[in-house]
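FIELD: query
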Amino acid sequence: MGDKMQERKNSHTTHTFRPMKIYHSFQSAAAIAMVIAISFTATSCKKNKEVAKPAGEVEIVEYCTGEEYYSDNKTFRSTATGESQDREIAKKKSRSNAEVRLAKMVSVTIKAVTDNYVNSTEFNNTEEATETFNELARSVVDQELRGAVTVCEKLTQRTNGLYVSYICIELSGEKIASKYNEKLSEDERIKAEYNYEKFKETFQAEMDALRH
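FIELD: result
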């Protein structure tokens, strides 16, 4: 009789404390989850503080710039800006600045083509041939520059009322080579010794090295 009562008592005791164990387990899991969440939040805040911009610094936005506006082996490109209190003058300044830079770039490339071509070709008078090439090159650059295509143009205004014009213009390398070849082929001073295929190869080699 006593054993049976003891057995019932033990059974009752076991059923009474089992829910308490589950409750404590739940509390422990919740506490761990809270610690993890707090740790994650602290880490995130720390990272955000690390990437914050230094006080007093402002991001500068520049238009018409970047890799897509670089010169490549097919096209000459030039970017520039112009500033003025008058919007139209600002646009004219940016165009003029871009044309000056483009003309210089094309001229440098053509000069390299001329030097390499003349030095690898047997002309009766190398000095005269070089001068002829350079003279015709200047004519081609001046003529083609007027037809430079605008590929990007932006106009902004600062808080002080000043207009800022951004621009990028380009010239086809193939078109420059074609016009240059046309001039060279017609010039009597070098016509007899001029070789178009060799010139074209020399020109393309310089274009392949072009990356501004």
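FIELD: remark
The chain has two domains: 1-51, 67-208.
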